[in-house]
C-alpha cells in the first residue's frame, strides 16, 4: 500500500482546490501525478486555461529512508567524514548531474547528503542587514527543514532550496528523491526537536577551540591568504552564537568525535598531534559501542613496540565507561598518530564490536583514503569506525522491516 500526499506548486501564486497537504492510499509504487485546474479567468490570449498545477506525490510504505544527522561547526571536517561514510557503502558521492553547479548536495547509489545551509531563510545580505550570523536560528527555516526531512523519510521527493555559497544568495530549488540513506549535515541537525526525532542516528564532531584555531590558521592563512587578525576576528564573532546554538547539540548525539590537543607533549599549541575521543552513547537502538580488549573495563594501552612503528611522542589508547551530559557512554580514545597505516591492523585486532564485514576492513578503508585529512590519527580512525557502525545500523533497520535477520556476522 502506498501513501500519497497532495501538494500545490509553491512557485505559482495560485490556489489548488484541494486541501494541502492531504493523504490518501493507492496500490502503486512511488510516482507523481500532475494535473491542472481551470478557471473562468481569461488570459491575454483569450484562453480559459489557467495552468495552475497540483502535484500528488506517492510513496510506497515499505521504502522508508534511514536518516543520519551530522552536526559540526564550519571547517570541522564534515566533508571528509561524508567521503569516508560514502566509501563504506561502496560508492562515490557526486553533485546532482545536470543541476545547479553550485548545489551543496552529494548523491551516491546508496546515500544522499544534503547541507542544512540550504535552509537559510536569509541570504548573506539579509543576515548582514539584520545583524545575525548563519548560526542564529532566526536565519534558518526550521519549519521547512522539518517538513522536507519528514517527507523524504516517508519516501516522498521534495523540492529543496539551495544556498549558494559562492554568491551568498538563495538559488532556485532542486529535486531530492528519497535515497536509502539520507545524511543531513550542517550547523543545526539536532537543534529543532522535531527534526531531531526524525534521526535514526546522530553524530557530533566536537573540535576544541585550540585545535579549531590551529586548523583555521592552517587552512585560511596557507590556502586562502587570510591574515591572522582576520581569522581571530572571525572566530570571536561566531563564538557567542556557536556556544548558544551549535555546541549544546552534542548532548543529543548518539556518538561524538571529540578532538583535543595532545597530552603527550606538554603545552603543545601546534595542533599537529591530536588526542581524539570517540564518545558512544549506551542503549541506542541498533548501535553497540566499540570497545578495547574487554567490554566495560577501564583500559590504558601503549601499543608502540615491535608491532607498531611510532615516532615521538608515541601513541596511547584509553577505553572506559563515563557519564556524558547525564548519559552513560563508552569512550575509546587515541592520543598520537600512526607512522605506517598498514600497521593499523595490529590496533584493529584489539578493538571489538567494529561491525566490519571482514577482518582488516578498518585498515583497508584507512589505506584506501590515506590522503584524507586525519588519516594518520584518531579522527580518521573513528570516522571510519562510525561509518561501519552506520552501515550496520542501516542493515539492521532494513532487516527488521523485512522480518529477516542480518545476513553476515559482524566482527
SSE layout:
Layout: E1 2-8, E2 23-26, E3 31-37, E4 52-60, E5 66-71, H1 78-88, E6 106-107, E7 111-115, H2 124-130, H3 142-153, E8 158-163, E9 170-176, E10 181-186, H4 193-198, E11 201-207, H5 209-222, H6 228-246, E12 255-261, E13 274-281, E14 291-292, E15 299-301, E16 315-324, E17 327-336, H7 344-348, E18 351-352, H8 361-368, H9 378-402
Parallel strand pairs: 5-10, 5-11, 7-10, 11-12
Antiparallel strand pairs: 1-2, 1-4, 3-4, 6-7, 8-9, 12-13, 13-17, 14-18, 15-16, 16-17
Key terms:
disordered N terminus, 10-stranded mixed β-sheet, 9 helices, 4-stranded antiparallel β-sheet, 411 residues
Walk me through this protein's architecture.
This protein has helices at 78-88, 124-130, 142-153, 193-198, 209-222, 228-246, 344-348, 361-368, 378-402, and strands spanning 2-8, 23-26, 31-37, 52-60, 66-71, 106-107, 111-115, 158-163, 170-176, 181-186, 201-207, 255-261, 274-281, 291-292, 299-301, 315-324, 327-336, 351-352. The chain starts with a strand and ends in a 9-residue tail after the last helix. The protein is globular. The longest helix has 25 residues, at 378-402. Strand 6 (106-107) and strand 7 (111-115) form a beta hairpin. It has a 10-stranded mixed sheet. Strands 2-1-4-3 form a 4-stranded antiparallel sheet, with no helix packed on it. Helix 1 crosses helix 9 and helix 5 packs across helix 6 (228-246). With 411 residues, the protein is an alpha+beta fold.
Amino acid at each position: 500500500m502506498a501513501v500519497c500526499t497532495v501538494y500545490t506548486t509553491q512557485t505559482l501564486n495560485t490556489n489548488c482546490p484541494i486541501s494541502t497537504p492531504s493523504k490518501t492510499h493507492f496500490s502503486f509504487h512511488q510516482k507523481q501525478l500532475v494535473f491542472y485546474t481551470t478557471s473562468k479567468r481569461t488570459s491575454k490570449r483569450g484562453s480559459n486555461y489557467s495552468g495552475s498545477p497540483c502535484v500528488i506525490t506517492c510513496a510506497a510504505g515499505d521504502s522508508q529512508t534511514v536518516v543520519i544527522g551530522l552536526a559540526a561547526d564550519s571547517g570541522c571536517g564534515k566533508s571528509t567524514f561524508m567521503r569516508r561514510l560514502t566509501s563504506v557503502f561502496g560508492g562515490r558521492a557526486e553533485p546532482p548531474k545536470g543541476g545547479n553547479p553550485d548545489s551543496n548536495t552529494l548523491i551516491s547509489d546508496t546515500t544522499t547528503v544534503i547541507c542544512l545551509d540550504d535552509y537559510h531563510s536569509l541570504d548573506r545580505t539579509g543576515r548582514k542587514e539584520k545583524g545575525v550570523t548563519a548560526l542564529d536560528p532566526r536565519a534558518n527555516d526550521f519549519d521547512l527543514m522539518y517538513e522536507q526531512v519528514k517527507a523524504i523519510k516517508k519516501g516522498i521527493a521534495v523540492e529543496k532550496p539551495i544556498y549558494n555559497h559562492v554568491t551568498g544568495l538563495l538559488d532556485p530549488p532542486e529535486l531530492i528523491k528519497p535515497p536509502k540513506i539520507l545524511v543531513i549535515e550542517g550547523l543545526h541537525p539536532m537543534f529543532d526537536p522535531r527534526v531531531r526525532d526524525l534521526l535514526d542516528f546522530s553524530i557530533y564532531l566536537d573540535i576544541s577551540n585550540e585545535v579549531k584555531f590551529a586548523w583555521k590558521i592552517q587552512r585560511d592563512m596557507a590556502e586562502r591568504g587570510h591574515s591572522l587578525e582576520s581569522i581571530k576576528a572571525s572566530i570571536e564573532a561566531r563564538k557567542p552564537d556557536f556556544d548558544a546554538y551549535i555546541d549544546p547539540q552534542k548532548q543529543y548525539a548518539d556518538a561524538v568525535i571529540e578532538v583535543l590537543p595532545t597530552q603527550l607533549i606538554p603545552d603543545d599549541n601546534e595542533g599537529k598531534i591530536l588526542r581524539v575521543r570517540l564518545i558512544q552513547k549506551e542503549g541506542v537502538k541498533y548501535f553497540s559501542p566499540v570497545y578495547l580488549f574487554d567490554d566495560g573495563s577501564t583500559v590504558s594501552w601503549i601499543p608502540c613496540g615491535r608491532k607498531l612503528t611510532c615516532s615521538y611522542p608515541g601513541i596511547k589508547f584509553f577505553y572506559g565507561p563515563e557519564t556524558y551530559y547525564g548519559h552513560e557512554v563508552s569512550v575509546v580514545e587515541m592520543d598520537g598518530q600512526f607512522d605506517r597505516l598498514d600497521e593499523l591492523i595490529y590496533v584493529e585486532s584489539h578493538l571489538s564490536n567494529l561491525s566490519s564485514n571482514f577482518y582488516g576492513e578498518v585498515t583497508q578503508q584507512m589505506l584506501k583514503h590515506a590522503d584524507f585529512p586525519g588519516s594518520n590519527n584518531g579522527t580518521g580512525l573513528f570516522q571510519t569506525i562510525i561509518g561501519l557502525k552506520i552501515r550496520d545500523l542501516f542493515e539492521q533497520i532494513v532487516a527488521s522491516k523485512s522480518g529477516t535477520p542480518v545476513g553476515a556476522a559482524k566482527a
